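User: I'll paste a sequence; please echo it back and then give the predicted structure.

Assistant: Echoing your sequence first, then the prediction.
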Amino acid sequence: MKPRVVVVSRRFLRKNKWVNWVSEAHVSLIMSEGLQPVIVPIPEEAERHLTGYAERMAGLLMVEGGDIDPRYYKGDSPPTELDELDELKDNYEFRFCRRALKRGVPILGICRGIQLLNVIQGGTLHADVMREKNSTLRHVDMENYDGYRHPVRVLEGTPLHDWYGLDELDVNSYHHQGIKKVAKRLEPMAYSLDGLVEAVFTPSHPFQVGLQFHPERMLPAYTGNRRVYDAFAKAVKAYHRRAHRSGSRASRAKKRKRRSR
């Protein structure tokens, strides 16, 4: 059985009906790495099935979605208009992420995913990056949504620098919230010109990486974009092998115990 990577979908109203979706770019990359994407839907009925989804989770991919509810990070930000909130997506992703952190399951957080990874470990967010930082740097450009890029400075000695081999990248940017206070367990890997943290990792974790930009949406631009997923897949497969060996040993121990009775 292929290693399973859990991805929680996002939802929006279309003609007064809820629609769940995950970008095909993520799904295609996961499958091309020899992994099995497991997409978790967000209706309330799914909550009773979350344990089943999590039991054989060998990797967690947290991707785009609406704003994270400020109550999760006790934000001290000034009142601001938030983008769409999704209480169920928050709830489900927090539960999967806690389990992944506890068990050492590899985690890749992209866009909203880096923000959740930061919040769940004690960090905080800017509810509105450009307003709170009074930044002239745009972090989203609605008139040039997919074409907009801005530079980020990559720190040497980090996995991001190893993957890209560059000190500076021009990255896409689609976000409203952003990291304010970095969680103690996370270390920055890149900054935008206005000082916003654009990438993080945890040295002590097998694979815990957060990127504010979307490598899957600019694959041809840098070979490092693909290397991000290669590294994630390598960690997922290693975890899967360890879990399989552990499960096999536990199964054999149970059989021996039954025979000895």
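The chain has one domain: 4-259. The mean pLDDT is 90.
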